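Bug report (template v2)

What were you trying to do?
Predict the complex of my protein with beta-D-fructofuranose.

What happened?
Run completed; filing so the output is reviewed.

Input:
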Amino acid sequence: MKTGTKALTWAAGCALTLLSANLGRAADAAAAKWTVGMSQCNLGEPWRVQMNADVKREADKHAELKVVYKDAQNDSLRQASHVEEFVRAGVNLIIISPKEAAPLTPPVAAAFKKGIPVIVLDRRVLGQDYTCFIGADNKKIGRAAGRYIVTLLGGKGNLVELKGLMTSTPGQDRHSGFVEGIKGSGLQVLFEADMKWLEPNARTEMESALARFKQIDLVYAHNDPGAHGAYLAAKAAGREQQIKFVGIDALPHEGQVYAKQGLLAASFEYPTGGREAIENALEILAGKPVQKEITLRSRVFTAANVDKGGEWLED
Ligand code: FRU
């Protein structure tokens, strides 16, 4: 074949591929009866990547649903404008996992008052102006972690608490639940800091704790990246064998692996709720009523039970 003919054949091939891709997209759009806007506060943490994957896996089963994703990159102002953009674009429903409660409350309330159903996922907003909230009970998880730690340490010892972002509701609840869980014991919290859910912050805070306190028995971190950051700081100081670590999230490829390796004494599961968000979105779009508050269950994972699928927290 002459070079010119080859080039023509190649160009025709490309044009055909493009055409069929466009036709495919048009078919998708035609099939999708509903557009859902999914506002994620960040995709820098494994748990959030998992949440979007859970949303997508469930949504992909429903040709009538098209999900548009926005990532606010951990910026509440950007996330507020994403919600406003969804409203302007006329989406049929919004799912939001908000970074912080206060700054995301007005845009969520505005969308809801305009008649757009809003599902709030994992972190809460303030007030009642949304359609439904889906998430696990963070206070219960914090309380269970506290009680577990009391038993693990035989009722006494020195603790470090590395908190999640305290302007977000899971951070507040995981703290207050934990305080309840250790109440009356001989445990003492020597050092507490807000690591804002981020592993590098947890590592830095733990370095300060290690520099100040000779005897630390356990670190309670509000998520597994935080617990892992603390572990790395302790390891760098040669003190990881003397300290126990407890975290929250228990993703199969993160916290559950750490628990199995013995790096974490325990990880408490925080389900993403991605599947349940889509299930409830479909109900709402079909005009059916849903519960205002949907509470997901959690399990605790330790080296002893991880292969058996963990153990459910009691109700
Ligand atoms: C991810 C994350 C999780 C945590 C959740 C709380 O951004 O920090 O690790 O469990 O958010 O909202």
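What did the reviewer find?
Residues 217 and 242 are 7 Å apart (CA to CA). The chain has ten helices and 13 strands.
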